[in-house]
Design a protein that fits this description.
The chain contains five helices and eight strands; from the N terminus they run αββββαβαβαββα. Strands 1-8-7-4-5-6 form a six-stranded mixed sheet. It has a two-stranded antiparallel sheet with strand order 2-3.
Length: 181
Amino acid sequence: MKRLVFLIPVLAFAVMAIWFAQGLDRDPRYIPSMLINQPAPEFNLQPIDGRDEAFTSRDLKGEVSMVNIFGSWCASCEIEHPVLMSIAREGVAPIYGLDWKDRPGAGAQWLMARGDPYAKIGDDAEGRVAIDFGVTGAPETFVVDKEGRVRHKHVGPISEDDWRNVLKPMIEDLKSAPPSY
């Protein structure tokens, strides 16, 4: 009986060590999204300053696209921006922007200084649409299929490697996939 009392803490420690060790295999940038394979949220955003066209959820149907959440206040968006410009030049898929929690005019000024990779940009100053997408920070990018379903969530800045090895092949596969009515 005394021996069993001494084994309980050892067993408890072993179980906790195994549980924590499993966490070391997980990618800390991976944040699961409840939207994967679900329709993108319904929204209708006004354009940012200097743009005429609103950005709505209807824009996400008919072709594979990307939705990029950014803000002029976002340091990581500065890192990601040259990659987005390169992606836009390739023309593989349209990139739609969601200017998240920015003050009026700031997103437009930021893009004027750095270039504009976006087909349309919605002003989400209150952050409601970003909440519907499940955004935890900027930048985040979503790949949306032809039917308007979210197929992938990328957290953090997109690197050239992310584009070349993950996002571009995924987009090309989705573009060649038959519709799933």
